[in-house]
Design a protein that fits this description.
heterodimer; A: 153 residues; alpha+beta; Ubiquitin-like (UB roll); DNA polymerase, domain 1; 5-stranded mixed β-sheet; B: 717 residues; Aldehyde Oxidoreductase, domain 4; 3 domains; 7-stranded mixed β-sheet; 19 helices; 29% helix; iron-sulfur (chain A); 2Fe2S_fd_BS (chain A); Beta-grasp_dom_sf (chain A)
């Protein structure tokens, strides 16, 4: 089996696995990082969102063969102890219900705010449209992204 | 002032000392409340059972509350311990909340469903907290040699008349030896320090940092991952299969047949998924596989026929209809719906000779453990089931068919196994909200509604419990509810606010039309009708005319009903379900000529609001969930097979379609009722009525989206 080298949450990582293995399952099964969630497997729900070279990416559709040499950040590596402004905003507004989709929501929001630190309400709604929350905690997600923007996310 | 209650606490509270130091209080709170709270639904059907919990007070004073109920996102893991902590009188910051484990020896049964956790738990949780506090006071008083009545307890400390102070932790050893007192005082609601304060989700930090919490996150050393090939259509059975290609895939360890299914076991989830795809199976195909077009015809035929079970009948509907100035009759249609929990069904099972270890997300742990025991021919006490946090439930995880699968696979291969569904598997093996049609007829005479007949035709099962006695039962003198079902091989079951999730839309839309026919304001029409049910002695009618009128007036006031801003169109609906009264005003604006839901103003009467933060989250979610499914939820079958298998074809509401939800609670000190479901049923009706106000189009079928005039395929997705 081939070996893939990449940077995962700031650590150099090598993994021997089949090249078609989606990053999602490599993270969850091989690298013990289960914060990245499986929702649909077809890039439709956003639960598996991670940052690849800083860009919010669906890890369920990203095979290991495509990430050699890249920098990957998962929810576990977003901050040392949950102190990223987006995580803090999420906590402050008590966003989650079941909570399952929230890691993906947070990863989408944090990459978005890095690109657009002062978004309009419409831009927030547009940016978060790709992430499904089945509990429909959308009102609070929207507010939390706006709050995080004021915290210099 | 405090409320004195008489209660036989010995029946449901037990205390013991802990070897590690400290005191353990165990209680069975279904025993505690069965005298004053009758479950409003068919218990056997939904597996409502009793509940249990523990409080641990360590000798350093720290309190751990083992929340007894499965957490599916409805917030009980936070709200239920808040009630205990209030009466125990400890600082919320010193309380640690853990998920109770299912231990069939000591706990009896736990379940999440029907928005009943808080309602059933209210008395028992308060009494347990207060009883424990009383025992701690007695222990401290004995140490001091003073009368317990001269001592007070607050914030985790006991104080006597001399000003001496002992922490709870200082007296736990002695308190654990005391008899459980028979009479304790409960707090007056005005003295609450925790209840009524917004407390954040107790798992918040773990959720936002991605810690392992859910069933899918669970793993053990040497565990195998299993994916299952299931019959591709309801009614098909397994004929034969070839697993050669599957076994050739790197990581695949074994392929086994379990009844009509084939399980592929592998060292990783991905290998199991690939192996599953490589299995070549042949299926036997019976002639009568059902399609949505069949259900459409069959349900219409039921409504056109006269073979019904009468579920409630008041007065003489036939006579009222014969004497009417006008009879209005409408038919409302809804599709099947999957639950589509974000966390697909999964479960861990380790079937060993000495015990069976099960771990995962299940709303009915005890019932499911019992069924696994029966399937495996094991004793119930050999089954150890641990609940994880759940990535959504909505009714789906009441049904443990996926637990049975995991246990059967582990039993067959003799190894620990985590069975995981792909999204497509999850859709395919669903226990769906059944397709239903309602036909409602009303007779109008002299400006009044004189008769009302509701007919329900549903796939597999009909409305349960007291639903036939919900509004407008008791408001209209001649009233009848009739039901009939069609038995189908497609599996169906409870889906968030069973039956009322669609019935409320049908009726609330119908009343909107009746109000228009009568030339009356729809809000006033409902208030006028409700006067007739006030003071009813009919025990089946459990909604309150007063409380319903209260929420209707509050929603109308907060929304400035009847005087919307220019360009805003309002629609009204009110509904009682799961013991909670809710009224909603939906506000729509036209964008490029199409109706867009911008805001929903909600008034809720759920008695005392335990945790306003969690409560509002449930209301916001329930309303948006209701709108999403009413607008977009469409799920159909072709020859027994679902046409929608993933979120590319099955549409859920997303951020840009989401209105702002504004929630108002009726303030009172009545016992609390649940919130997981009641905000959902009125949402579809309020939106349908607002669409009518905005566009003049009445909608008789869900989902609304594709039917709205001027909508293009691009817009509906």
């Amino acid at each position: 089996m081939p070996v893939f080298n990449f940077t995962l949450n700031k650590k150099k990582t090598s993994l021997e696995a089949e090249g078609d293995t989606p990053l999602l399952w490599a993270l969850r099964d091989e690298l013990d990082l289960v914060g990245t969630k499986f929702g649909c497997g077809v890039g439709q729900c956003g639960a598996c969102t991670v940052h690849i070279n800083g860009t919010a990416t669906r890890s369920c559709l990203t095979p290991l063969s495509a990430i050699d040499g890249m920098e990957i950040t998962t929810i576990e590596g977003l901050s040392e102890d949950g102190t990223h402004p987006v995580q803090e905003a999420w906590a402050e507004l008590d966003v989650p219900q079941c909570g399952y989709c929230q890691a993906g929501q947070i990863m989408t929001a944090s990459a978005f705010l890095k690109e657009n630190p002062n978004p309009s309400g419409e831009e927030i709604r547009e940016a978060m449209h790709g992430n499904i929350c089945r509990c429909a905690s959308y009102n609070r997600i929207e507010k939390a992204v706006a709050l995080a923007a004021t915290k210099n996310a | 002032m405090t409320t004195k209650i008489t209660f036989n606490r010995r029946n449901f509270i037990r205390t013991s000392s802990l070897a590690s130091g400290g005191m353990l209080v165990g209680f069975n709170f279904f025993t505690a409340c069965k005298d004053n709270a009758k479950p409003p639904v068919d218990l056997a059907q939904l597996d409502y059972n009793d509940f249990n919990a523990f409080i641990k007070i360590a000798d350093n004073g720290k309190v751990t509350i083992f929340s007894p109920n499965p957490e599916i996102g409805q917030g009980v893991k936070t709200a239920m311990p808040m009630i205990i902590a209030e009466e125990l009188d400890v600082p919320w910051e010193d309380v640690h909340v853990a998920q109770g484990k299912l231990d069939t020896q000591n706990y009896q049964r736990q379940v999440a469903g029907g928005s009943q956790s808080i309602r059933f738990g209210w008395d028992a949780l308060r009494q347990t907290g207060a009883t424990t506090k009383q025992m701690l006071i007695q222990a401290a008083a004995a140490k001091w040699g003073v009368d317990p009545s001269s001592c007070t307890a607050s914030e985790g400390k006991i104080t006597n008349a001399n000003g001496d102070v002992l922490g709870y932790g200082d007296v736990v050893k002695e308190a654990a030896q005391l008899e459980v007192p028979e009479d304790v005082s409960l707090k007056d609601p005005k003295d609450y320090k925790i209840i009524g304060q917004g407390k954040r989700n107790v798992d918040l930090k773990e959720i936002v940092t991605g810690k392992p919490l859910y069933g899918l996150d669970y793993k053990t050393e040497g565990m195998l991952h299993a994916c299952v090939v299931r019959p591709p259509a309801f009614g098909k059975t397994l004929d034969s299969f070839d697993d050669t290609a599957a076994r050739a895939i790197t990581g695949v360890v074994d392929v086994v047949q379990i009844e009509d299914k084939i399980a592929v076991l592998a060292k990783s989830t991905w290998a199991a998924m690939k192996g599953k795809r490589a299995v070549v199976a042949q299926w036997t195909t019976p002639k009568n596989l059902e399609s949505t077009t069949d259900h459409d015809r069959i349900l219409s035929d039921i409504l056109d026929g006269d073979d019904f079970e009468v579920r409630r009948e008041d007065g003489d509907v036939k006579k009222a209809f014969a004497e009417a100035d006008e009879v209005v009759e409408r038919t409302y249609e809804s599709p099947f719906l999957p639950h589509a929990c974000m966390e697909p069904m999964n479960f861990y099972a380790d079937v060993r000779s000495d015990k069976v270890h099960l771990v995962g997300p299940i709303q009915t742990p005890a019932g499911t453990a019992g069924r696994v025991a029966e399937m495996l021919g094991r004793k119930e006490e050999e089954i150890e089931l641990e609940m994880t946090r759940m990535g959504g439930g909505f009714g789906r995880r009441l049904y443990g068919n996926f637990v049975m699968e995991a246990a059967a696979i582990s039993g067959k291969v003799g190894k620990p196994v985590k069975m995981v569904c792909s999204r497509e598997d999850d859709m395919e093996m669903g226990i769906f909200r059944m397709a239903i049609k309602y036909r409602i007829a009303a007779s109008l005479k002299d400006g009044k509604i004189t008769g009302y007949h509701l007919k329900e035709a549903a796939v597999n099962s009909n409305m349960y419990g007291l639903i036939p006695h919900f509004f407008p039962a008791g408001c209209i003198p001649n009233y009848k509810v009739s039901t009939q079902s069609h038995k189908s091989p497609i599996t169906t079951g409870a889906w968030r606010a069973p039956y009322t999730n669609f019935l409320a839309y049908a009726e609330q839309s119908f009343f909107d039309e009746l109000a228009a026919k009568l030339g009356q304001d729809p809000v006033q029409l409902r208030i006028d009708l409700l006067q007739n049910v006030k003071g009813t002695e009919d025990e089946n009618i459990q909604y309150s005319g007063e409380r319903m009128e209260g929420v209707i007036k509050l929603a109308a006031e907060k929304a400035n009903w009847g005087n919307p801003k220019e360009g805003v169109y309002q629609g009204f609906a009110a509904y009682y379900s799961h013991n909670t009264h809710v009224a909603e005003v939906a506000e729509i604006e036209l964008e490029k000529g199409l109706p867009v839901v911008k805001k929903v103003i909600v008034a809720v009467d759920c008695g005392i609001v335990i945790n306003p933060s969690g409560a509002k989250n449930q209301i916001e979610g329930g309303v948006i969930d209701g709108i999403g499914h009413a607008m977009y939820g469409d799920f159909s079958f072709d020859a027994g097979r679902p046409n929608q298998m993933n979120f590319d074809t099955y549409r859920l509401i997303r951020m840009k379609e989401t209105p702002i939800v504004e929630t108002h609670f009726v303030e009172n000190t009545l016992s609390p009722t649940g919130l997981g479901e009641p905000a959902l049923p009125p949402a579809g009706g309020a939106v349908a009525n607002a669409i009518m106000a905005a566009t003049g189009q009445r909608l008789f079928k869900q989902p609304f989206g594709p039917q709205i005039k001027g909508v293009t395929q691009e817009l509906i997705g």
